[in-house]
Amino acid sequence: MSMAGSPDAVPAIRPGETLGSIGGRVEAIPLAHPSGRRWWIAFAGALALLGLFAFTLGYLLYEGVGIWNNNNAVVWALDIASYDWWIGVACGSLLVSGVLLLLGAEWRGAVNRIAETVALLATAAAGLYPIIHLGRPWFFFWNLPYPNTYNLWPQFRSPLLWDAIDIVSFLVLAVSLWYIGLLPDIAALRDRAHADATRQIEAVAPTRRIALFKAQAYGILASGWRGSAAHWQIWGQAYRIVALLGVLLVVSVQTGASVMLAGSVMPGWHGTLMPVSFLIHAVLSGVGVTAALVVMVRVVYGLDALVTDRHLDALARLILCLGCASAYCYAAETFDTFLAGDAAGRGVLVRRMTGEHAPAFWTAVVGLVLPPQLLWSARARRSPLVIAAVGVLVAIGAYADHVMILVVTLTQDFLPSSRLPYGEDIWGIATFAGSLGLFLCLVLLFVRYFPALSITQTRQLVAGDARGAAPGAPEVGALRHDAPLWGVAAAFLNEAELTAALQSLASLRGRIRLDGYGPVPMPRTIRALGLEGRSILPYALGGAVVGGAAFYGMCIYATAYDYVFLIGGRPRFSWPSFVVPSVSFAMLCGCLAVHGALLVLNRLPRLNHPAFHIPGFERATQDRYFLAAEVDDGAEAARIERRLAGLPAGGGRPLSVTRVPR
Amino acid sequence: MDNGTADDRPPGLATAQLFTPGADAIYRLVLMTLVACLVALPVLGAGIVRSNYVTGVGVAPSQPLPFSHKHHSGELGIDCRYCHTGVEKEASAGIPPTHTCMTCHSQIWTGSDMLKPVRDSYAQDKPLVWNRLNKLPGYVYFNHSVHVTKGVGCSSCHGDVTSMQMTYRANAFEMQFCLDCHRAPEKNLRTPAEVWNMEWKPPADQASLGPKLAERYHVRGGERLTECGICHR
């Protein structure tokens, strides 16, 4: 996403930052946890809300969904508005993160980790709503196709089933995008935590066991990530493919949510612009929440060096663009309804503006449409406070928008007898506040234990800066005589030197396994290793096509042959309604195939690996590059050692050369 | 030149190896177990709800006295309707009152210890409390008479009762059991004479006979019989 004009002049990272300093700044948050007191205060508040959630759910299970004051025509009250809002926030932030990744926006490192986290955690909050709003939540699985003793299939023509498949797929996609992006960063955390633990063990510190446990926990999460060039290659592909699948799923989920409304006969839910406005408001609220969190993390943890004015400016421009699109949607809907709409549609619009629930409409206008317009000012775009405030306001506006769309239409049913009053009630609000508590608790735990910014992607901004060669002749380390040999390893200051050294060993390729390791993706090393042709796209495509086709086939089999059931006059072969859940399921299967390819092609998980015996290898996730040649023959190893040690400066001179035991 | 600074890089470790070689095996085992559980638990659950342990199929509960359908109906040849009098006319087939037992047992086996509960029941005018085998949920409407008068035999649901020493549940009356037949009734329709035949097997010409019987009984299959309101009224 190229930003025209001034922002390109502003660097996306403060000058002078290095691979090591970026890692140090970000890893310090989970490992040393500065601002602990403020964190605890915030966490206590979030926990209180979570407690409220537990209490509300307890009362809900005891009393039933009627506590939401929806025993009237407004059967979809705050529960569905909250669900739509949460999934909108999740979709929006996932879409932004995915699009930035696919477009290769270089500044994304400071934003997309938080966006992916918001996507994941908002999905967790959203995912609870469809379950708890069931009369009997413990039968939620009745909505899924499973081998049951009723000889029944779920109704594949129903948007309710689409929703169930959508949310399951979306959750898997959100977890995957988050975890795949996080994987190398967790490895970096593992190595720093390991160094910390080693220091504590040497000093016999009382917390040494906890330190080691922490390192091992990160180690298990990192699944043995070694930063090998081949790992990075597959990882980069996996990350982008999952982002693409996620972007496609977002469009399907959001337009599906609007089609669910359009499938009814209620006025005000049939505008042709509605799928677009759902998507725009989803993305706007997602960006709003993400921007507010980015600003918060920057302020609380003093990350001005990594989250620069450039990032604030980019986020602000994004909010401004989406705010304009939102204003357009509002204007177009009003204009179109008054000009060409039917009487019922006009009635709904008038009731939105002047009726009993008019505050929802005006909150939406004041939250969604007006605040983004502030960001025309360049000064406002550089002010963290303004951006955070606008972010929060658009999120509130998006919530009001959902309430307005649902409640205003539903309050006026077609039967005079169903015109019972509905008012936003205390339990509906408590449930939403509780789900907010769940979200905030998880966000705080995330900030506490995981890197809040993408170390890898921020490092890519400075990876080319590391130039020059080792200052002197390399140290050549010896191996204990009794240990069996795994190979010869060499350490380098930058990728250029590593690539040069690999090229000098090119004649060994095929006979001996060569690999390069480093803290960022290494495209040049991939070329030097001759691995550039590898692609996992066929796996992802295969998984998606097979999964989607299988689901589509199941829909046809169930609906047209096995469970023929006349409902609402729909045809036996209702092919268009099967497309939505099949697409969602295809994305899910493509994502699972990517995971499989990521693990199998990278030979992961592998917690223990001889490469970790390379002296100083913990810096392969920080600021060093390594070469490993796997030889078990002593004479061959000696030849390789001599060849590496003799390389000239600028032509692959290593910092050190060592033999590595198995 | 990227050398880092002293405070932002980890000090040298003896080795970056955090795990022993054995950890790999454990980790992979745990991962595979989790994946296996993900697959196995639903399969296990589906298996358990279908098992006789849950459905009670084939399990004869204890009764106030060991009444044998095999002896009375199979060996002595007493007709089903002698005891279950409502089966052709009413929704419920009916459990016989003690008086029905006493029509014979006031004459034969009058001193039997085994039959003491029957005589006590008769003398005290208190019904025998049998343990019910086949229960349908309250939201299921079922009518015996319409089934037996339209060619659905006893044994189609209750199994070969005449071979049961102690009576047990022959089929789990789950929705799929009812629907299997309601979706294709012609597979199980019999001629009126065969309805009471406990050893009935579909004859060789059932494929051609079934649809004819369905027509004669005015049984509308598939669409009509699988409407929700047929059973859930």
Task: List descriptors.
heterodimer, A: 662 residues, five-stranded mixed beta sheet, 5 strands, 4% strand, elongated, disordered N terminus, B: 233 residues, mainly alpha, 12 helices
Widest sheet: strand ordering of chain A = 1-5-2-4-3
What gyration radius of chain A follows from the Cα positions, in whole Å?
A: 28 Å
| Dominant shape of chain B | extended
Strand proportion of chain B = under 5%
Number of continuous helical runs of chain A: 20
What's the helix-strand series of chain B? Answer: HHHHHHHHHHHH
SS-based class of chain B = mainly alpha
Query: What's the total count of β strands of chain B?
Result: 0
Q: End-to-end span of chain A in angstroms?
A: 46 Å
**Pair with the biggest interface:** A-B, 53 and 38 residues
Quaternary structure state of the chains depicted: heterodimer
Largest sheet geometry of chain B: none
Terminal residue distance of chain B: 82 Å
Helix content of chain A: 55-70%
Overview of the molecule:
The complex is a heterodimer of chains A (662) and B (233). By secondary structure, chain A is mostly helical. The relative contact order of chain A is 0.15. Chain A is elongated. The N terminus of chain A is likely disordered. Chain A is built from 20 helices and five strands. In chain A, strands 1-5-2-4-3 form a five-stranded mixed β-sheet. Chain A is 62% helix and 4% strand. The N and C termini of chain B lie far apart (82 Å). In chain B, helix 5 packs across helix 6. Chain B is built from twelve helices and no strands. Chain B has 233 residues and is mainly α. The chains are: A mainly alpha (662), B mainly alpha (233). The interface between A and B is large, with 53 and 38 residues.
